[in-house]
């Protein structure tokens, strides 16, 4: 029997969906099955407003919940539920005890990058091995709550694995759309193991997403990061990060950039935490993309106002091999609000950074290593203070793409044969 805590909260005064375009103002019911504004077509976001926030009391309550084994408290997402949409009954929450991942100092990595204070927030140490679980627990809970029978996503692999696991947990049919031949075998194996239906699409992730969004099945609930409930779950990673830092925000938060849902979520987290007095300043958000899949970095460096998609994205960092990120406007808002920037790094730089993260005994998939590669590049050019406190987000586990690791270390993995004349001495 888990510890039971008296942690009742005041009801939320606001909980609804709103168009993310600042000049639109369209609002919808919280549980409306919509992904985009019916008026202007922009993505939606959830508006969450606790009735009253006592910052000190709330921080104490969140920390105290870690003493409880009740599922809604053991989850590193749902223990921050005052800032999550939907007053779901405890039994309705679909959870695998996600979150609660450590913040690990990067010692060798910091020295290699030329900085003094570097922390890795490793979201790859979630149940299915990636940050996607944080958003999936919230999205899947909403799907089940509104009576969905089947859930679906387009994916480069991590979302597929996460959706499959949480759909199995919820008792729903899971369906994943993957770019044929491009998803890591490790990630595909996860989706298969959890019982998802696999649909392989010729082309890129963007083609897979277009195919999925073209479906008109009313029974199908979409769970890509354009779903606002996914963003709400993912933002809690920053609540936990700040808790681990004693609510003293880092100077920089560095995050990989793919479909840009994470960047959007983290910006939203910082905005809400500052609005309600839980932090006094917002870290500068740095988004790092792979050079072969860098539409936002190109837009940022050119000063353009609209995103120009990369038609054929290509990078070894398959998790962020996305040429037309749907959450780019939200991500730009997050970077602009924080005074941050967007950049890119080459596949070679990603490989070098990944190897160095491994030397710290941490490990990650290639997409995660863009963060360290970006930090080194910024430090070398004087764009980042070497004395600054830097938190780098690692989004996927090292075992997510073992083919990359084996290939990168090819000569070291060849089996050595003993000379035929060799003998074994028996003592």
Describe the protein in words.
The strands form 3 sheets. Strands 4-5-13-10-11-12 form a 6-stranded mixed β-sheet, sandwiched between helices. A 4-stranded parallel β-sheet has the order 8-7-6-9. Helices cover 36% and strands 16% of the residues. The protein is built from 15 helices and 13 strands. It has a domain at 103-129 and 230-405: Rossmann fold. It has helices spanning 55-64, 71-74, 107-113, 132-145, 158-170, 185-193, 205-213, 228-244, 261-275, 295-302, 328-338, 347-359, 370-380, 402-408, 410-413, and strands spanning 12-19, 27-28, 44-50, 103-105, 117-122, 150-154, 173-179, 197-201, 220-222, 252-256, 284-290, 341-345, 389-394. With 427 residues, the protein is of the alpha/beta class. Helix 3 packs across helix 13 (370-380) and helix 12 crosses helix 13 (370-380). Mean pLDDT is 91; it is low at 1-6 and 418-427. Strand 10, helix 9 and strand 11 form a beta-alpha-beta unit. The N and C termini lie far apart (56 Å).
């Amino acid at each position: 029997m888990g510890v039971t805590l008296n942690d009742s909260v005041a009801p939320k005064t606001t909980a609804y969906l709103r168009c993310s375009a600042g000049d639109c103002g369209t609002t919808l019911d919280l549980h409306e099955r919509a992904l985009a504004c019916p008026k202007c077509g922009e993505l939606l976001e959830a508006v969450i407003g606790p009735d009253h926030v006592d910052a000190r009391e709330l921080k104490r309550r969140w920390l105290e919940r870690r003493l409880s084994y009740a599922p809604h408290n053991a989850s590193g997402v749902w223990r921050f539920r005052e800032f999550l949409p939907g007053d779901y009954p405890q039994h309705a929450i679909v959870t695998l005890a996600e979150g609660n991942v450590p913040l690990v100092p990067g010692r060798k990595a910091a020295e290699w990058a030329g900085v003094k204070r570097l922390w890795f927030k490793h979201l790859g140490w979630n149940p299915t091995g990636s940050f996607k679980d944080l958003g999936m627990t919230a999205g899947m809970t909403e799907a089940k709550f509104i009576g969905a029978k089947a859930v679906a996503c387009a994916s480069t692999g991590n979302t597929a694995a996460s959706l499959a696991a949480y759909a199995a947990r919820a008792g729903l049919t899971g369906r994943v759309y993957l770019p044929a031949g491009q998803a890591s075998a490790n990630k595909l194996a996860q989706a298969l193991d959890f019982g998802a239906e696999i649909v392989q699409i010729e082309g890129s992730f963007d083609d897979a997403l277009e195919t999925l969004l073209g479906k008109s099945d009313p029974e199908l609930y979409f769970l890509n990061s354009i779903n606002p409930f996914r963003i709400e779950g993912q933002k809690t990673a920053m609540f936990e990060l700040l808790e681990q830092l004693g609510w003293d925000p880092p100077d920089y938060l560095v995050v990989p950039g793919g479909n840009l849902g994470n960047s959007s979520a983290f910006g939203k987290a910082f905005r809400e935490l500052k609005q309600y007095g839980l932090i006094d300043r917002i870290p500068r958000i740095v988004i790092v993309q792979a050079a072969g899949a860098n539409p936002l970095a190109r837009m940022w460096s050119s000063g353009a106002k609209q995103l120009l998609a990369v038609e054929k994205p290509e990078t070894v960092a398959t998790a962020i091999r996305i040429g037309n990120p749907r959450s780019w406007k939200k991500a730009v808002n997050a970077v602009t609000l924080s005074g941050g920037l967007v950049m890119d790094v080459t596949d070679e730089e990603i490989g070098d950074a990944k190897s160095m993260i491994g030397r710290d005994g941490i490990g990650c998939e290639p997409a995660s290593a863009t963060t360290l590669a970006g930090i080194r590049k910024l430090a070398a050019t004087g764009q980042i203070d070497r004395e600054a406190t830097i938190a780098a987000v690692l989004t996927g586990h090292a075992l997510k793409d073992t083919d990359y690791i084996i290939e990168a270390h090819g000569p070291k993995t060849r089996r050595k044969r003993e000379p035929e004349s060799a003998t074994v001495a028996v003592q």
